[in-house]
């Protein structure tokens, strides 16, 4: 297992290296001065320009420039935002918690609703129930996320007025950021209005999280159903049934834990698509996360924000994908057997 973890670490380093190389090459094609594209300083003084040339080795070969660029970016220096003139790393770290909060809530909705429906679809003998669940998942998988988000906003936000359609919380509440997660920070807020603020934050996250959860929800239902149908036919399940164990005991203790293994693996494979959908949802609902921040930077031609946003999102996806794969292989004995056999 140690050799496997070392290979995963090497994979993360190699992939990150390739990603930085792509960003470095792309920077040279931005329609602006290279010093501006690298630092975000629109009108550098002679001293600043000399410092930029030394930091990024602009008068040296492309290879030396690449290593200087890599060293600078890995040190956390992503430059200044062209529009706000604030450090990009500061804006990125402020936007990340909102994106993580939305992703976590959406993932919980997808798993908590998708797994039971997948189990029901696999165990139910009623053809109507099976076909209805699969029709719902197929419909959800086919609906464009931008159309769904706009439709939910129109009906539940504008026409019915039940839920807010933009932002994370009402601007009347001045919440001090502690964790960056609004649902937690509202409860930590030292005020008599913290529960009303929590309720308001909860209402704000309902529509964007449901919109974002539809795609992983449909995948979870289908993968859970397929895994349960396969597992329920295995000999150890038949032996448990022969011993007279109740169906619920067999499902919860023996079948479902094994059925969740492919669900975990497929959730890891979906991270890239999930991040893309998240960007669309954040723009639709004006959710102040990395997605809307990055899209705003693209519209404003903020080259340092584009580089920092792409680097931050990509590294996060790569890291989480490898982490989920490691957890999957640690949890699944068959995968560990394949790893050791490969060694």
UniProtKB/TrEMBL annotation:
Residue span(s) of domain ABC transmembrane type-1: 96-328
Gene3D superfamilies from the UniProt entry: MetI-like
Family membership: Belongs to the binding-protein-dependent transport system permease family. OppBC subfamily.
Membrane topology reported for the UniProt record: Multi-pass membrane protein
Pfam family, one: BPD_transp_1
Location within or outside the cell: Cell membrane
Bilayer-crossing regions: 9-30, 102-123, 135-158, 201-223, 274-299, 305-327
Taxonomic path: Bacteria, Pseudomonadati, Pseudomonadota, Gammaproteobacteria, Alteromonadales
Assigned keywords, A-Z: Cell membrane, Membrane, Transmembrane, Transmembrane helix, Transport
GO molecular function, one term: dipeptide transmembrane transporter activity
InterPro entries, A to Z: MetI-like (IPR000515), MetI-like_sf (IPR035906)
Presence of the UniProt keyword Disulfide bond in the record: no
Cross-referenced CDD domains: TM_PBP2
First-listed, main subcellular location of the protein, grouped into a coarse class: membrane
Protein name (record): Binding-protein-dependent transport systems inner membrane component
GO cellular component entries: plasma membrane
């Amino acid at each position: 297992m140690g050799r496997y973890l070392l290979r995963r670490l090497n994979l993360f380093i190699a992939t990150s290296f390739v990603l930085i190389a792509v960003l470095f090459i792309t920077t040279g094609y931005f329609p602006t001065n290279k010093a501006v594209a690298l630092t975000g300083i629109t009108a550098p003084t002679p001293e600043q320009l000399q410092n930029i040339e030394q930091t990024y080795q602009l008068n040296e070969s492309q290879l030396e420039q690449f290593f200087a660029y890599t060293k600078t970016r890995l040190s956390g220096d992503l430059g200044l935002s062209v529009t706000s003139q604030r450090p990009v790393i500061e804006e990125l770290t402020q936007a990340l918690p909102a994106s993580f909060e939305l992703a976590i809530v959406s993932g919980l909705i997808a798993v908590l609703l998708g797994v039971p429906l997948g189990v029901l679809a696999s165990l139910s003998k009623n053809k109507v129930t099976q076909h209805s669940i699969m029709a719902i998942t197929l419909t959800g998988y086919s609906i464009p996320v931008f159309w769904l988000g706009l439709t939910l906003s129109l009906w539940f936000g504008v026409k019915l007025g039940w839920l807010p359609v933009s932002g994370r919380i009402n601007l009347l509440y001045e919440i001090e950021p502690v964790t960056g997660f609004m649902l937690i920070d509202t409860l930590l807020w030292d005020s008599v209005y913290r529960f009303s603020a929590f309720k308001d934050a909860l209402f704000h996250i309902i529509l964007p999280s449901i919109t974002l959860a539809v795609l992983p929800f449909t995948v979870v239902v289908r993968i859970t159903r397929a895994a349960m149908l396969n597992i329920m036919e295995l000999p150890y399940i038949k032996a448990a049934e022969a011993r007279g164990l109740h169906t619920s005991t067999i499902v919860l203790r023996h079948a479902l834990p094994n059925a969740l293994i492919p669900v975990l693996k497929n959730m890891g494979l979906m991270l890239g698509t999930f991040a893309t959908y998240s960007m669309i949802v954040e723009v639709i609902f004006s959710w102040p996360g990395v997605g809307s921040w990055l899209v705003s930077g693209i519209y404003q031609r903020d080259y340092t924000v584009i580089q920092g946003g792409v680097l931050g999102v990509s590294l996060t996806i790569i890291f989480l994908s490898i982490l989920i794969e490691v957890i999957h292989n640690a949890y699944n004995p068959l995968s560990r057997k394949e790893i050791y056999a490969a060694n």
